[in-house]
Specification:
445 residues, 19-stranded mixed barrel, two-stranded antiparallel ribbon, globular
Length: 445
């Protein structure tokens, strides 16, 4: 959860990357804590990169080979948004998992070198507490000519996150840039009428980012709002965003919906209040499904779910905690004749409860809204079916009216290999021309 990711869904569907030339990537697990990968790329000339990854914790549950990795987890598509209550449940689960690990404040090291340019980049991530994390990124460019100097860029992030908000403090050595990002997440599960155990999947997020370059005295500002919910009749998710940059004068509005398990549609409209320029973008993705994994006995996939929420609520069954609703024996009127209700003795009838117990029982049942339960049940069923789907490939398409271009991309699995290909076509001229195309092959063991 970060303001940087607030527009992730429309960016995944409208601004996806197209491979350039031919590229092959191979990754492997060296030890329980270290991983390495190598990449070869052919575009005009042969180049590549070598990267190394190390974590203080064992990531055996997070690392999977390309043969067993779920395809939806590596393809950038619709992003399911968790509500604040689901965030709290997820944070409690992470804290419980940390007790089994030796290092409560783990760290991560990452480095990558490009050849033959000897371009370097790296990252250090250190967990300071359960809600605080520090990230250090650096880039070093070599000296290509005698008159040029080495250029090094250092960026420091201090991130604080909980179930309600996320804050990022940023410093970059470029122009001595200072930045502040904030994201606040609201949800209808904060309502007083919400009953215990009920989790609403509706979420409203609002955030902003501030930038200021100390050397050039240049400011920067942007703000955005995101609304995510599920259609009550089918449980299909949809997301709407509105972003504004007052300094540049740009306004962006997006609408993303997943009308089916194997399809996603997105539209975006941009407008500049200073130049009156506008653009309309459309994009969609189609997945090919070969079948479904069998559901677990708990009616939930054992794999990592995208919107994880262990609070089980269904429209047919609902657990009502009534162990604290038993009447006070001291307030019960002792009678010789016991009332018979439905052929059984009712020793503690409803009308002899005290006022607090009456209020607690009525509040519990009044908090159950059939419409909300139906929406939540449909949403959970949609997510569970999506997580159990065995996708084999995906096709993406995006087009821009103002730029007059169109992009196509295909991603899929062949044996234990992940394949990605695409083409970018420019239609500004009388004859459309191919601006970029390529093929990428990935393998990890």
């Amino acid at each position: 959860m970060s303001y940087e990711q607030i527009l992730r869904t429309p960016n995944n569907l409208l601004q996806f990357k197209i491979p350039s030339g031919f590229q092959v990537s191979v990754a492997s697990k060296n030890t329980e804590n270290s991983y390495s990968s190598a990449t070869l790329r052919q575009l005009n000339r042969l180049n590549g990169s070598v990267s190394y990854f190390y974590s203080s914790n064992d990531m055996k549950n997070a690392y999977k080979g390309t043969g067993t990795l779920p395809l939806w987890s590596v393809i950038d598509d619709y992003r399911f948004i968790r509500s604040p209550k689901q965030e709290r449940v997820l944070q409690r689960r992470k804290k419980a998992e940390k007790k089994d690990l030796g290092d409560r404040n783990p760290y991560l090291l990452y480095g990558k070198m490009y050849f033959p340019s000897q371009f370097l980049e790296g990252m250090i991530v250190k967990r300071l507490s359960d809600s605080t994390q520090m990230t250090l990124r650096f880039i070093n460019t070599p000296k290509f000519r005698k008159l040029t100097k080495n250029c090094s860029i250092l960026t420091l992030y201090l991130q604080r996150q909980n179930d309600h908000n996320a804050t990022d403090f940023i410093y970059s050595s470029t122009e001595s840039l200072l930045g502040l990002r904030c994201l606040y997440k609201l949800g209808s599960d904060f309502s007083l009428s919400s009953s215990p155990g009920y989790t609403d999947s509706t979420s409203l997020s609002a955030g902003f980012e501030l930038w200021f370059a100390l050397l050039s005295m240049s400011p920067g500002l942007s703000t955005a709002v995101r609304y995510s919910t599920h259609i009550s009749s089918s449980g299909k998710p949809l997301t709407m965003t509105l972003a504004l940059n007052p300094l540049l004068g740009t306004i962006e509005s997006t609408y993303s919906i997943k009308p089916g398990l194997n399809s996603t549609f997105c539209s975006k409209y941009t407008f500049n209040i200073y130049s009156y320029e506008s653009d309309f973008l459309l994009g969609f993705s189609l997945f090919r499904c070969n079948g479904y994994n069998p559901p677990s006995p708990q009616l939930q996939s054992t794999n990592k779910t995208i919107a994880d929420s262990p609070d089980k609520v269904s429209f047919q069954t609902r657990e009502i905690h009534t162990e604290n609703l038993q009447p006070n024996r001291s307030n019960t009127i002792q009678r010789n004749d016991t009332k018979k209700v439905g052929g059984r003795s009712d020793k503690y009838p409803f009308n002899v409860m005290d006022e607090d117990q009456h209020h607690q029982l009525l509040t519990t049942f009044m908090g159950i809204t059939p419409g909300k339960l139906l929406t939540e049940n449909n949403a959970r069923h949609f997510l569970d079916t999506f997580n159990r789907s065995q996708f084999s490939s995906a096709f993406k398409c995006a087009a821009s009216v103002a730029r007059k271009d169109v992009k196509f991309a295909w991603e899929g699995r062949f044996k234990d290999l992940l394949l990605s290909s695409g083409v970018h076509i420019d239609c500004n001229d009388s004859i459309p021309r191919v601006d970029k195309c390529g093929l990428e092959i990935q393998y990890s063991s």
